[in-house]
Protein backbone atom coordinates (compact mmCIF):
# COMPACT_ATOMS: atom_id res chain seq x y z
CA UNK A 1 0.00 0.00 0.00
CA UNK A 2 1.15 3.55 -0.66
CA UNK A 3 0.69 6.64 1.49
CA UNK A 4 -2.69 8.12 0.60
CA UNK A 5 -3.10 11.79 -0.07
CA UNK A 6 -6.43 12.16 -1.95
CA UNK A 7 -9.52 13.76 -0.34
CA UNK A 8 -11.58 11.52 1.98
CA UNK A 9 -14.61 9.90 0.33
CA UNK A 10 -17.13 7.38 1.62
CA UNK A 11 -16.01 3.80 0.95
CA UNK A 12 -18.33 0.79 0.95
CA UNK A 13 -17.36 -2.71 2.02
CA UNK A 14 -19.97 -5.32 1.17
CA UNK A 15 -20.36 -8.38 3.39
CA UNK A 16 -21.81 -11.08 1.10
CA UNK A 17 -23.59 -13.34 3.56
CA UNK A 18 -26.54 -14.41 1.39
CA UNK A 19 -29.83 -13.32 2.96
CA UNK A 20 -27.83 -11.72 5.79
CA UNK A 21 -25.66 -9.65 3.42
CA UNK A 22 -25.03 -6.02 4.33
CA UNK A 23 -22.95 -2.95 3.56
CA UNK A 24 -20.44 -1.15 5.74
CA UNK A 25 -20.21 2.55 4.80
CA UNK A 26 -17.03 4.28 5.95
CA UNK A 27 -16.39 8.01 5.69
CA UNK A 28 -17.30 11.49 6.91
CA UNK A 29 -20.80 12.84 7.52
CA UNK A 30 -22.61 9.52 7.87
CA UNK A 31 -24.53 10.34 11.07
CA UNK A 32 -26.21 13.25 9.28
CA UNK A 33 -27.05 10.89 6.41
CA UNK A 34 -28.04 7.93 8.62
CA UNK A 35 -31.82 8.32 8.21
CA UNK A 36 -31.59 8.49 4.41
CA UNK A 37 -29.16 5.54 4.21
CA UNK A 38 -31.34 3.40 6.48
CA UNK A 39 -34.64 4.36 4.81
CA UNK A 40 -33.25 3.53 1.37
CA UNK A 41 -32.26 0.02 2.47
CA UNK A 42 -34.68 -1.11 5.19
CA UNK A 43 -38.48 -1.23 5.29
CA UNK A 44 -39.21 -0.48 8.95
CA UNK A 45 -39.95 3.05 10.11
CA UNK A 46 -39.47 2.62 13.89
CA UNK A 47 -36.20 2.44 15.78
CA UNK A 48 -34.83 2.14 19.29
CA UNK A 49 -31.48 3.89 19.59
CA UNK A 50 -29.20 2.49 22.29
CA UNK A 51 -26.29 4.66 23.31
CA UNK A 52 -24.23 5.67 26.34
CA UNK A 53 -23.74 8.70 28.55
CA UNK A 54 -20.53 9.77 26.79
CA UNK A 55 -21.80 9.46 23.24
CA UNK A 56 -25.39 10.74 23.72
CA UNK A 57 -24.49 14.42 24.31
CA UNK A 58 -22.30 14.42 21.21
CA UNK A 59 -24.31 12.60 18.54
CA UNK A 60 -27.76 11.45 19.69
CA UNK A 61 -29.60 14.61 18.67
CA UNK A 62 -28.06 14.62 15.19
CA UNK A 63 -28.89 10.95 14.67
CA UNK A 64 -32.48 11.30 15.88
CA UNK A 65 -32.99 14.37 13.65
CA UNK A 66 -31.61 12.53 10.64
CA UNK A 67 -33.95 9.60 11.34
CA UNK A 68 -36.93 11.94 11.73
CA UNK A 69 -36.12 13.67 8.42
CA UNK A 70 -36.31 10.26 6.76
CA UNK A 71 -39.68 9.47 8.41
CA UNK A 72 -38.23 7.11 11.04
CA UNK A 73 -39.71 7.45 14.55
CA UNK A 74 -37.18 6.67 17.25
CA UNK A 75 -36.93 6.26 21.01
CA UNK A 76 -33.60 6.35 22.80
CA UNK A 77 -32.11 4.74 25.85
CA UNK A 78 -28.89 6.06 27.36
CA UNK A 79 -26.83 3.55 29.36
CA UNK A 80 -23.75 4.12 31.52
CA UNK A 81 -20.46 4.07 29.59
CA UNK A 82 -17.89 1.31 30.12
CA UNK A 83 -17.35 -2.43 29.93
CA UNK A 84 -19.41 -3.04 33.10
CA UNK A 85 -22.52 -2.10 31.10
CA UNK A 86 -22.28 -5.45 29.29
CA UNK A 87 -24.43 -7.02 32.02
CA UNK A 88 -27.85 -8.67 32.34
CA UNK A 89 -29.16 -5.62 34.16
CA UNK A 90 -28.41 -3.22 31.31
CA UNK A 91 -29.43 -5.78 28.70
CA UNK A 92 -32.87 -5.89 30.36
CA UNK A 93 -33.13 -2.09 30.32
CA UNK A 94 -32.28 -2.09 26.62
CA UNK A 95 -34.76 -4.88 25.79
CA UNK A 96 -37.53 -3.09 27.71
CA UNK A 97 -36.90 0.09 25.73
CA UNK A 98 -37.04 -1.78 22.42
CA UNK A 99 -40.39 -3.32 23.41
CA UNK A 100 -41.74 -0.05 24.81
CA UNK A 101 -40.91 1.60 21.47
CA UNK A 102 -42.97 -1.15 19.77
CA UNK A 103 -40.08 -2.04 17.55
CA UNK A 104 -41.31 -4.87 15.31
CA UNK A 105 -39.25 -7.48 13.48
CA UNK A 106 -38.82 -5.27 10.39
CA UNK A 107 -37.95 -2.24 12.51
CA UNK A 108 -34.55 -1.88 14.08
CA UNK A 109 -32.34 -1.40 17.03
CA UNK A 110 -29.64 1.18 16.32
CA UNK A 111 -26.41 0.96 18.32
CA UNK A 112 -24.84 4.40 18.62
CA UNK A 113 -21.56 3.93 20.44
CA UNK A 114 -18.43 1.83 20.82
CA UNK A 115 -17.95 -1.90 21.23
CA UNK A 116 -19.80 -2.17 24.53
CA UNK A 117 -22.96 -0.53 23.18
CA UNK A 118 -22.69 -2.43 19.87
CA UNK A 119 -22.30 -5.83 21.56
CA UNK A 120 -25.13 -5.24 24.05
CA UNK A 121 -27.51 -3.69 21.47
CA UNK A 122 -26.85 -6.47 19.00
CA UNK A 123 -27.68 -9.01 21.68
CA UNK A 124 -30.93 -7.15 22.48
CA UNK A 125 -31.77 -7.03 18.75
CA UNK A 126 -31.04 -10.76 18.48
CA UNK A 127 -33.37 -11.81 21.29
CA UNK A 128 -36.29 -9.31 21.37
CA UNK A 129 -39.18 -10.87 19.41
CA UNK A 130 -36.58 -13.58 18.57
CA UNK A 131 -34.78 -11.10 16.37
CA UNK A 132 -35.37 -7.60 15.03
CA UNK A 133 -33.20 -5.77 12.53
CA UNK A 134 -30.03 -4.13 13.67
CA UNK A 135 -28.04 -1.09 12.52
CA UNK A 136 -24.59 -0.27 13.87
CA UNK A 137 -23.42 3.34 14.08
CA UNK A 138 -19.99 2.71 15.65
CA UNK A 139 -18.34 5.73 17.27
CA UNK A 140 -14.95 4.35 18.33
CA UNK A 141 -12.11 3.19 16.11
CA UNK A 142 -12.32 -0.23 17.71
CA UNK A 143 -16.00 -0.63 16.91
CA UNK A 144 -15.56 0.73 13.37
CA UNK A 145 -12.83 -1.75 12.46
CA UNK A 146 -13.95 -4.75 14.46
CA UNK A 147 -16.92 -5.17 16.76
CA UNK A 148 -19.58 -3.58 14.51
CA UNK A 149 -18.83 -6.12 11.78
CA UNK A 150 -19.46 -9.85 11.87
CA UNK A 151 -22.45 -10.31 14.14
CA UNK A 152 -20.82 -11.34 17.43
CA UNK A 153 -22.99 -9.86 20.17
CA UNK A 154 -23.09 -10.39 23.90
CA UNK A 155 -22.50 -9.44 27.48
CA UNK A 156 -19.90 -10.46 30.05
CA UNK A 157 -20.37 -12.97 32.85
CA UNK A 158 -18.51 -13.24 36.14
CA UNK A 159 -16.89 -16.24 34.43
CA UNK A 160 -15.42 -14.12 31.65
CA UNK A 161 -15.76 -11.80 28.70
CA UNK A 162 -18.57 -12.14 26.10
CA UNK A 163 -19.61 -15.52 27.47
CA UNK A 164 -23.34 -14.88 26.97
CA UNK A 165 -24.54 -13.81 23.55
CA UNK A 166 -25.77 -14.74 20.09
CA UNK A 167 -24.63 -14.31 16.52
CA UNK A 168 -26.84 -11.60 15.01
CA UNK A 169 -25.55 -9.81 11.92
CA UNK A 170 -26.28 -6.10 11.46
CA UNK A 171 -28.31 -5.03 8.42
CA UNK A 172 -26.15 -1.96 7.90
CA UNK A 173 -23.03 -0.40 9.44
CA UNK A 174 -22.50 3.36 9.22
CA UNK A 175 -18.96 4.21 10.31
CA UNK A 176 -18.84 8.01 10.42
CA UNK A 177 -15.14 8.81 10.54
CA UNK A 178 -15.76 12.43 11.66
CA UNK A 179 -16.68 11.15 15.12
CA UNK A 180 -13.22 9.69 15.65
CA UNK A 181 -11.92 13.22 16.16
CA UNK A 182 -13.71 13.31 19.52
CA UNK A 183 -11.90 10.21 20.86
CA UNK A 184 -9.17 10.51 23.44
CA UNK A 185 -5.72 9.45 22.24
CA UNK A 186 -5.92 6.44 24.53
CA UNK A 187 -9.23 5.28 23.02
CA UNK A 188 -7.95 5.79 19.47
CA UNK A 189 -4.77 3.84 20.24
CA UNK A 190 -6.78 1.01 21.76
CA UNK A 191 -8.77 0.70 18.52
CA UNK A 192 -5.55 0.81 16.53
CA UNK A 193 -4.50 -2.48 18.15
CA UNK A 194 -7.33 -4.19 16.24
CA UNK A 195 -6.22 -2.47 12.99
CA UNK A 196 -2.67 -3.82 13.46
CA UNK A 197 -4.19 -7.24 14.22
CA UNK A 198 -5.38 -7.64 10.60
CA UNK A 199 -1.81 -7.14 9.36
CA UNK A 200 -0.54 -9.68 11.86
CA UNK A 201 -3.19 -12.27 10.98
CA UNK A 202 -2.49 -12.58 7.25
CA UNK A 203 -1.60 -9.20 5.73
CA UNK A 204 2.12 -8.61 6.21
CA UNK A 205 2.07 -5.81 3.60
CA UNK A 206 -0.65 -4.01 5.54
CA UNK A 207 1.40 -4.34 8.74
CA UNK A 208 4.44 -2.87 6.95
CA UNK A 209 2.23 -0.08 5.57
CA UNK A 210 1.02 0.67 9.10
CA UNK A 211 4.60 0.76 10.39
CA UNK A 212 5.34 3.40 7.74
CA UNK A 213 2.04 5.32 7.83
CA UNK A 214 0.64 5.06 11.35
CA UNK A 215 1.18 8.75 12.01
CA UNK A 216 -1.01 9.61 9.00
CA UNK A 217 -3.66 7.17 10.27
CA UNK A 218 -3.60 8.89 13.67
CA UNK A 219 -3.74 12.33 11.99
CA UNK A 220 -7.00 11.50 10.15
CA UNK A 221 -8.06 12.00 6.53
CA UNK A 222 -7.71 9.56 3.68
CA UNK A 223 -5.05 7.32 5.30
CA UNK A 224 -7.34 6.75 8.26
CA UNK A 225 -10.31 5.88 6.05
CA UNK A 226 -8.11 3.55 4.02
CA UNK A 227 -6.91 1.78 7.19
CA UNK A 228 -10.50 1.37 8.42
CA UNK A 229 -11.76 0.11 5.05
CA UNK A 230 -8.84 -2.35 4.73
CA UNK A 231 -9.61 -3.61 8.25
CA UNK A 232 -13.34 -4.01 7.54
CA UNK A 233 -12.61 -5.82 4.27
CA UNK A 234 -10.18 -8.13 6.07
CA UNK A 235 -12.76 -8.88 8.73
CA UNK A 236 -15.57 -9.33 6.18
CA UNK A 237 -13.48 -11.88 4.24
CA UNK A 238 -12.90 -14.00 7.34
CA UNK A 239 -16.52 -13.74 8.52
CA UNK A 240 -17.90 -14.71 5.11
CA UNK A 241 -15.68 -17.80 5.06
CA UNK A 242 -16.68 -18.93 8.58
CA UNK A 243 -19.60 -16.94 9.97
CA UNK A 244 -20.11 -18.98 13.15
CA UNK A 245 -16.46 -19.52 14.10
CA UNK A 246 -16.26 -23.21 13.36
CA UNK A 247 -12.68 -22.81 12.21
CA UNK A 248 -10.79 -19.95 10.57
CA UNK A 249 -12.84 -17.12 12.12
CA UNK A 250 -10.94 -17.85 15.32
CA UNK A 251 -7.99 -16.09 13.64
CA UNK A 252 -9.76 -12.81 14.48
CA UNK A 253 -9.11 -13.75 18.08
CA UNK A 254 -5.36 -13.20 17.73
CA UNK A 255 -4.21 -11.68 21.02
CA UNK A 256 -7.64 -12.14 22.60
CA UNK A 257 -7.02 -15.33 24.61
CA UNK A 258 -4.40 -13.57 26.73
CA UNK A 259 -6.16 -10.19 26.32
CA UNK A 260 -9.53 -11.39 27.65
CA UNK A 261 -7.80 -13.08 30.62
CA UNK A 262 -6.07 -9.78 31.43
CA UNK A 263 -9.35 -7.87 31.17
CA UNK A 264 -10.97 -10.32 33.58
CA UNK A 265 -7.91 -10.11 35.87
CA UNK A 266 -8.30 -6.32 36.05
CA UNK A 267 -12.05 -6.63 36.71
CA UNK A 268 -12.83 -4.70 33.49
CA UNK A 269 -11.55 -1.57 35.18
CA UNK A 270 -10.94 0.84 32.30
CA UNK A 271 -8.56 2.91 34.44
CA UNK A 272 -6.20 -0.07 34.32
CA UNK A 273 -6.91 -1.71 30.98
CA UNK A 274 -9.30 -1.35 28.06
CA UNK A 275 -10.04 -4.08 25.53
CA UNK A 276 -7.69 -2.89 22.78
CA UNK A 277 -4.84 -2.53 25.27
CA UNK A 278 -5.43 -6.12 26.42
CA UNK A 279 -5.34 -7.19 22.75
CA UNK A 280 -2.08 -5.27 22.23
CA UNK A 281 -0.39 -7.07 25.14
CA UNK A 282 -2.06 -10.32 24.04
CA UNK A 283 -0.70 -10.04 20.48
CA UNK A 284 2.85 -9.54 21.74
CA UNK A 285 2.40 -12.50 24.10
CA UNK A 286 1.02 -14.63 21.24
CA UNK A 287 4.12 -13.82 19.14
CA UNK A 288 6.47 -14.45 22.06
CA UNK A 289 4.74 -17.71 22.91
CA UNK A 290 5.00 -18.78 19.25
CA UNK A 291 8.73 -18.03 19.39
CA UNK A 292 9.05 -20.03 22.62
CA UNK A 293 7.35 -22.98 20.85
CA UNK A 294 9.96 -22.58 18.03
CA UNK A 295 7.25 -21.71 15.54
CA UNK A 296 8.40 -18.17 14.80
CA UNK A 297 11.49 -16.03 15.16
CA UNK A 298 11.83 -13.93 18.34
CA UNK A 299 12.61 -11.05 15.93
CA UNK A 300 8.96 -11.05 14.83
CA UNK A 301 7.79 -10.69 18.42
CA UNK A 302 10.26 -7.83 18.86
CA UNK A 303 8.98 -6.18 15.67
CA UNK A 304 5.36 -6.34 16.86
CA UNK A 305 6.37 -5.05 20.29
CA UNK A 306 8.33 -2.18 18.70
CA UNK A 307 5.45 -1.02 16.50
CA UNK A 308 2.77 -1.22 19.19
CA UNK A 309 5.07 0.57 21.64
CA UNK A 310 5.80 3.25 19.01
CA UNK A 311 2.11 4.13 18.80
CA UNK A 312 1.96 4.25 22.60
CA UNK A 313 0.17 0.99 23.36
CA UNK A 314 1.03 -1.18 26.38
CA UNK A 315 2.81 -4.36 25.26
CA UNK A 316 3.70 -6.08 28.54
CA UNK A 317 1.76 -7.28 31.55
CA UNK A 318 3.98 -5.04 33.67
CA UNK A 319 2.61 -2.02 31.73
CA UNK A 320 -0.77 -2.58 33.45
CA UNK A 321 -1.03 -0.41 36.57
CA UNK A 322 -1.62 -2.23 39.86
CA UNK A 323 -1.18 -5.86 40.88
CA UNK A 324 -2.18 -8.74 38.63
CA UNK A 325 -3.32 -12.08 40.05
CA UNK A 326 -0.83 -14.96 39.77
CA UNK A 327 -0.24 -16.89 36.54
CA UNK A 328 -2.53 -19.69 37.78
CA UNK A 329 -5.50 -17.30 38.01
CA UNK A 330 -4.81 -16.03 34.47
CA UNK A 331 -4.74 -19.65 33.37
CA UNK A 332 -8.17 -20.25 34.97
CA UNK A 333 -9.58 -17.37 32.90
CA UNK A 334 -7.97 -18.79 29.75
CA UNK A 335 -9.62 -22.15 30.46
CA UNK A 336 -13.05 -20.41 30.16
CA UNK A 337 -12.24 -19.17 26.65
CA UNK A 338 -14.93 -19.89 24.06
CA UNK A 339 -12.36 -21.56 21.82
CA UNK A 340 -11.73 -24.38 24.32
CA UNK A 341 -12.83 -27.70 22.76
CA UNK A 342 -13.12 -30.90 24.77
CA UNK A 343 -11.15 -29.15 27.52
CA UNK A 344 -8.26 -28.46 25.08
CA UNK A 345 -6.90 -24.96 24.63
CA UNK A 346 -7.09 -23.31 21.22
CA UNK A 347 -4.68 -20.45 20.63
CA UNK A 348 -3.98 -18.26 17.67
CA UNK A 349 -0.27 -18.67 17.11
CA UNK A 350 1.99 -17.49 14.32
CA UNK A 351 4.85 -18.54 12.07
CA UNK A 352 5.78 -14.90 11.49
CA UNK A 353 4.30 -11.50 10.69
CA UNK A 354 1.02 -12.12 8.84
CA UNK A 355 1.26 -15.90 9.22
CA UNK A 356 -1.16 -16.63 12.05
CA UNK A 357 -2.86 -19.98 12.41
CA UNK A 358 -5.31 -21.73 14.71
CA UNK A 359 -3.56 -24.20 17.04
CA UNK A 360 -5.96 -26.50 18.88
CA UNK A 361 -3.42 -28.69 20.63
CA UNK A 362 -1.58 -26.23 22.84
CA UNK A 363 -0.45 -27.93 26.07
CA UNK A 364 -1.71 -26.07 29.13
CA UNK A 365 1.62 -26.87 30.84
CA UNK A 366 3.50 -24.79 28.20
CA UNK A 367 1.10 -21.87 28.64
CA UNK A 368 1.39 -21.84 32.40
CA UNK A 369 5.19 -21.96 32.38
CA UNK A 370 5.23 -19.16 29.80
CA UNK A 371 2.89 -17.07 31.95
CA UNK A 372 5.05 -17.73 35.04
CA UNK A 373 8.11 -16.48 33.12
CA UNK A 374 6.31 -13.36 31.95
CA UNK A 375 4.59 -12.68 35.25
CA UNK A 376 6.79 -14.16 38.01
O1 LIG B 1 -15.33 -11.16 15.37
C1 LIG B 1 -14.60 -12.03 15.83
O2 LIG B 1 -14.73 -13.23 15.54
C2 LIG B 1 -13.53 -11.68 16.77
O3 LIG B 1 -12.98 -12.54 17.43
C3 LIG B 1 -13.16 -10.25 16.89
C4 LIG B 1 -12.62 -9.84 18.22
O4 LIG B 1 -11.69 -8.81 17.98
C5 LIG B 1 -13.71 -9.30 19.13
O5 LIG B 1 -13.15 -8.71 20.27
C6 LIG B 1 -14.70 -10.32 19.55
O6 LIG B 1 -15.79 -9.73 20.17
C7 LIG B 1 -14.12 -11.33 20.50
O7 LIG B 1 -14.91 -12.43 20.38
P1 LIG B 1 -14.93 -13.58 21.44
O8 LIG B 1 -15.65 -14.68 20.76
O9 LIG B 1 -13.52 -13.94 21.79
O10 LIG B 1 -15.66 -13.04 22.62
TrEMBL record:
<keyword id="KW-0170">Cobalt</keyword>
<protein>
    <recommendedName>
        <fullName>3-dehydroquinate synthase</fullName>
        <ecNumber>4.2.3.4</ecNumber>
    </recommendedName>
</protein>
<keyword id="KW-0028">Amino-acid biosynthesis</keyword>
<keyword id="KW-0547">Nucleotide-binding</keyword>
<dbReference type="InterPro" id="IPR030960">
    <property type="entry name" value="DHQS/DOIS_N"/>
</dbReference>
<feature type="binding site">
    <location>
        <begin position="115"/>
        <end position="119"/>
    </location>
    <ligand>
        <name>NAD(+)</name>
    </ligand>
</feature>
<feature type="domain" description="3-dehydroquinate synthase C-terminal">
    <location>
        <begin position="191"/>
        <end position="340"/>
    </location>
</feature>
<feature type="binding site">
    <location>
        <position position="256"/>
    </location>
    <ligand>
        <name>Zn(2+)</name>
    </ligand>
</feature>
<dbReference type="GO" id="GO:0003856">
    <property type="term" value="F:3-dehydroquinate synthase activity"/>
</dbReference>
<dbReference type="Pfam" id="PF01761">
    <property type="entry name" value="DHQ_synthase"/>
</dbReference>
<feature type="binding site">
    <location>
        <position position="275"/>
    </location>
    <ligand>
        <name>Zn(2+)</name>
    </ligand>
</feature>
<comment type="similarity">
    <text>Belongs to the sugar phosphate cyclases superfamily. Dehydroquinate synthase family.</text>
</comment>
<feature type="binding site">
    <location>
        <position position="152"/>
    </location>
    <ligand>
        <name>NAD(+)</name>
    </ligand>
</feature>
<dbReference type="InterPro" id="IPR056179">
    <property type="entry name" value="DHQS_C"/>
</dbReference>
<comment type="function">
    <text>Catalyzes the conversion of 3-deoxy-D-arabino-heptulosonate 7-phosphate (DAHP) to dehydroquinate (DHQ).</text>
</comment>
<comment type="pathway">
    <text>Metabolic intermediate biosynthesis; chorismate biosynthesis; chorismate from D-erythrose 4-phosphate and phosphoenolpyruvate: step 2/7.</text>
</comment>
<dbReference type="InterPro" id="IPR030963">
    <property type="entry name" value="DHQ_synth_fam"/>
</dbReference>
<dbReference type="InterPro" id="IPR016037">
    <property type="entry name" value="DHQ_synth_AroB"/>
</dbReference>
<feature type="binding site">
    <location>
        <begin position="139"/>
        <end position="140"/>
    </location>
    <ligand>
        <name>NAD(+)</name>
    </ligand>
</feature>
<keyword id="KW-0479">Metal-binding</keyword>
<keyword id="KW-0057">Aromatic amino acid biosynthesis</keyword>
<feature type="binding site">
    <location>
        <position position="194"/>
    </location>
    <ligand>
        <name>Zn(2+)</name>
    </ligand>
</feature>
<keyword id="KW-0456">Lyase</keyword>
<keyword id="KW-0520">NAD</keyword>
<feature type="binding site">
    <location>
        <position position="161"/>
    </location>
    <ligand>
        <name>NAD(+)</name>
    </ligand>
</feature>
<keyword id="KW-0963">Cytoplasm</keyword>
<dbReference type="InterPro" id="IPR050071">
    <property type="entry name" value="Dehydroquinate_synthase"/>
</dbReference>
<dbReference type="Pfam" id="PF24621">
    <property type="entry name" value="DHQS_C"/>
</dbReference>
<keyword id="KW-0862">Zinc</keyword>
<feature type="domain" description="3-dehydroquinate synthase N-terminal">
    <location>
        <begin position="77"/>
        <end position="189"/>
    </location>
</feature>
Amino acid sequence: MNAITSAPAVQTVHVPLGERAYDILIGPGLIARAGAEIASRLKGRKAAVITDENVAPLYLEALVASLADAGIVSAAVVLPAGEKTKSFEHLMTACDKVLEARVERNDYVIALGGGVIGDLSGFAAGIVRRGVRFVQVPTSLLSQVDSSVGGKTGINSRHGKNLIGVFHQPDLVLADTDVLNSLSEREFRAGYAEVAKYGLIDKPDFFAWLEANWKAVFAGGAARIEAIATSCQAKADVVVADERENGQRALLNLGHTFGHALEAATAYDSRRLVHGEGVSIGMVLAHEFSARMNLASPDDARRVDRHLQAVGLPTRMSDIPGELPPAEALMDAIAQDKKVKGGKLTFILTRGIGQSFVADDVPASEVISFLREKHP
